[in-house]
Specification:
alpha/beta; Archaeosine Trna-guanine Transglycosylase, Chain: A, domain 4; Rossmann fold; seven-stranded mixed β-sheet; six-stranded mixed β-sheet; 11 helices; about 30% strand; globular; binds S-adenosyl-L-homocysteine
């Protein structure tokens, strides 16, 4: 591979083998793919296929990552922009896409890593608070410029980095949570469809909230009228609150975290969205207890943490999804619906549906697959990077024999 610095730019011609990977579409290259040759560290480079075809810009790693080069989209001309110019274009584009397609929101993802052409950078906004995640050496090296851009654009009360992510280790980056600008804000409110969620940027899950489940929350709300609802793995009850706002007659939220459940009940009380019953416990046990108790629900939400975090864990993970989904289906009242999710990237959509099929195998009623949902449009999936489509949500419905659809609806 030739790395030839021209005046202030750098261009890389991929070896034939890496170019083949590139042609299949995947935008990451490992050191081996690149014939293990030296690359400049944390640099923007112009990437070319053998023969000179332009593949746009790439970002090199800090030397610690196995991923040596990540493509980050087309760029006009044949050179490499300054970091500030690159960031200004990519971040402005990301925000413009959201303003055009999504509208004004108090909580949304502004930048979704490779899909927005800045591999390793996530930017979430909660009202006047901005939380970033940095998972690539390039982003880490340019954190200051990124923060300065966000401060100039939004004048936020706080810019926080949630770097408490195990993947940072693979990039040779320390796990840390750090205030990058402004003053410490412990809790911030966002409003979604009239429901207020209190987000904790410093210690909440992910960057504070599951922004990605917005479409599923909207669906739950739309299906909840008069429903008895079970929200499994509820965290701070976002689904249960949406259901109650949609007219559910009762919601039970189940989580192993008493603290998260306390926030769920406090939110329901503060907004007079009741009755929300919290049940602390292991969801695997609780669903069996509910089944033994003969309980049934019009709407069950099943949104567990990822059971397969690597390819090796897929087989074991499938068993967990299958068992839980089977019991969740058994808890459905006639005509009831199960909104079931998997955020394990390694369990691809078809595999997840296979697991759901197996879970429904010997049930005494039919189960329809009514709808396929995923993360919202502020978490776009880049076709070239299957990893960016990690969240799968399926709406299933219990259907009775001889009654048209289901007794209750
Ligand atoms: N549905 C939530 C997000 C779920 S995150 C939302 O929309 O906001 C996964 C949750 O599962 C976490 O709150 C975690 O505390 C909980 N959890 C993990 N394992 C569990 C188990 N075995 N039983 C009950 N809760 C569990």
């Amino acid at each position: 591979m030739a790395t030839e610095p021209t005046s202030d730019t750098m261009s890389i011609t991929l070896p034939e083998r890496a170019a083949r990977i590139g042609r299949r579409g995947h935008p990451w290259f490992y050191a081996d793919d690149l014939a293990s040759q030296e690359l400049p560290k944390t640099a923007l480079v112009r990437v070319r296929a053998p023969g000179g075809r332009d593949l746009g810009l790439g970002m090199t790693s800090n030397g610690s990552s196995k991923i040596a080069l990540r493509l980050c989209g087309p760029w006009e001309g044949s050179g490499v922009p300054e970091v500030e110019e690159f960031l200004d274009r990519r971040l402005s584009d990301a925000i413009a896409l959201r303003e055009a397609g999504i509208g004004e929101r108090t909580g949304e993802r502004l930048v979704h890593s490779e899909a927005d052409g800045v591999p390793g950078l996530v930017v979430d906004r909660y009202s006047d608070v901005i939380v970033i995640q940095s998972t690539s050496g390039w982003v880490e090296a340019n954190r200051g410029a990124i923060t300065a851009w966000l401060v100039a654009r939004f004048s936020p009360a706080m810019v926080l980095m949630r770097g408490d992510l195990p993947v940072r280790k693979r990039e040779g980056l320390a796990e840390e949570v750090r205030l990058l600008a402004g003053e410490r804000v412990d809790e911030v409110e966002i409003e979604e469809d009239g429901v207020v969620h209190r987000v904790r940027p410093w210690d909440g899950h992910k960057t504070g909230f599951y922004l990605d489940q917005r479409p599923a929350r909207a669906r739950v709300r739309a299906l909840a009228a008069s429903a008895r609802v079970l929200d499994l793995f509820s965290y701070q009850g976002a689904f249960a609150l949406s259901a109650l706002a949609g007219g559910a007659r009762e919601a039970i939220a189940v989580d192993q975290s008493a603290e998260a459940l306390a926030r769920a009940t406090a939110a329901a009380e503060a907004q007079e969205l009741g009755p929300l019953t919290a049940r602390v416990g292991n969801a695997f046990d609780v669903v069996r207890e509910l089944r033994a108790d003969g309980q049934s629900f019009d709407l069950v939400v099943l949104d567990p943490p990822p059971f397969c975090k690597s390819r090796r864990e897929v087989e074991g993970g499938k068993r967990g999804y299958r068992d839980l989904n089977r019991i969740a289906m058994q808890l459905l009242a006639p005509g009831g619906r199960l909104i079931t999710a998997s955020c394990s990237y390694h369990l691809r959509g078809e595999m997840f549906e296979d697991v759901l099929r197996q879970a429904s195998f010997d049930l005494p009623f039919r189960v329809f697959l009514e709808e396929r949902l995923g993360a919202g449009a502020d978490h776009p999936a880049w076709l070239r990077l299957p990893e960016s489509e990690y969240l799968k949500v399926r709406v299933l419905r219990r259907v009775e024999d001889g009654t048209g659809v289901g007794d209750s609806g």
